[in-house]
Design a protein that fits this description.
Number of strands: 9
Shape: globular
Radius of gyration: 17 Å
Helix content: 10-25%
Order of helices and strands: EHEHEEHEHEEEE
Length: 153
């Protein structure tokens, strides 16, 4: 078995424009395509029916699909699920230096998940944030090997 394309992840959103700006302006993704998806596909996918999907290319490869259900109730059901449920927990983005991204996230109104905001773990710097709709985003770089920079806020 051979995979033929880079990995994709779908994120159901309430405000497509807000989330597209966040992932493009702050994390460097690039909007490639937006289209409607018919109920014949959205229904069997468990998303309630007709959808609008924007494909965002991640600079390092792969794709984030922002999915806006056209029918009410899908987002309500999703938001009623417990935050610590099994399943997708967070999106990870790897950078050469997360410092500027951390500052951009602050400026964009994202919320850090932990204090300190950046931690050292296994030779990497890691920072967890919540995007404008409450999805967790992890930033990772390999600058954690610098002994002079153990943690920062």
């Amino acid at each position: 078995m051979v995979m033929t394309l880079p990995f994709e992840v779908g994120v159901v959103v309430r405000d497509l424009e807000l989330m597209e700006r966040f992932y493009c302006d702050v994390l460097g993704c690039r909007a490639e395509h937006r289209s409607g998806v018919p109920e014949s596909v959205g229904g069997p996918a468990g998303l309630g029916g007709e959808l609008v999907v924007t494909w965002l290319r991640v600079p390092s490869g792969g794709c984030v699909k922002l999915i806006l259900p056209r029918s009410a109730g899908v987002s309500e059901r999703a938001s009623a699920l417990p935050a610590r449920r099994p399943g997708l927990s967070y999106l990870t983005f790897h950078f050469d230096d997360i410092g500027p991204v951390v500052e951009a996230l602050r400026a964009a109104g994202a919320r850090p998940v932990s204090d300190p905001v950046v931690v050292l773990a296994r030779g990497r710097r890691i920072s967890f944030w919540v995007d404008p709709e409450g999805n967790a985003v992890e930033l990772v770089d390999v600058r954690g090997g610098n002994p002079g920079q153990r943690r920062s806020n």
